[in-house]
Write a structure and sequence with these properties.
This protein is an alpha/beta fold and 237 residues long. Helices cover 46% and strands 18% of the residues. A 7-stranded mixed sheet has the order 3-2-1-4-5-7-6, covered by helices on one side. Helix 2 crosses helix 5 and helix 3 packs across helix 4. The longest helix has 16 residues. It is globular, with a radius of gyration of 17 Å. The two termini are 32 Å apart. Pfam families: Methyltransf_25. This is Class I SAM-dependent methyltransferase. Keywords: Methyltransferase, Transferase.
Length: 237
Amino acid sequence: MTATHDAAGKFDASRAGEYEQQSRIALAGYDACHELAACMLAAALGTGRAARILVAGAGGGAREVVTAAALEPHWRFTAVDPSGPMLALAVARLAESGLDARTEIVRGTVSDLPPDEAFDAATLIGVLHHLAGDDAKRAILQDIARRLRPGAPLILAGNHQAYASQPLLLAAWGERWRQQGAGPEEVEAKRAKILQGADPPHSEQAVADLLREGGFEPPLRFFSSLFWGAWIARRRR
């Protein structure tokens, strides 16, 4: 199994069922990040034109597709995810939104797509920090770059910084759960889980380095929330 498939094993049926609610607690500004991601892509591509968008790690509520499709009616999407339960949830949300006809669903990884694909843009949201080690992170970025047109934009979003290195941010993250009704024991369980269950790039510079090594130009950050950041970067020409 690849590292990406290993990461997908964390997203079983029970986690898929709670994903949409809990992701909005763990990331303050979840919807705003997706809305701005769609706006950044539209600004980079130009509005009102047809485009093919690769959505890597689309499982869950397919929020990337739902939000972007509402802004740009001529975009079509290829949604890729190795987790069956998470992909099933995405398919359900796409059907509810009437977007199943505009979206190709692929259970697998970006590396499973034909190497001669030429997408106009891509998103990788909430994925990179679930991949263990820089090699796996670099590999998925390289796989995406190979399937993008030269100069095409990528939206990359996820946690960065080693959690234990930022105790104030980690404490505030716990307070976010308490703010949403979690008791002390649940807050501690959530904090222990994040410390053991993810491997984010350790700095914003590390994100930029991974993008450069993956075949992208220097990124521009457009959103931040505690450990979370969102950037746009173009595939090198």
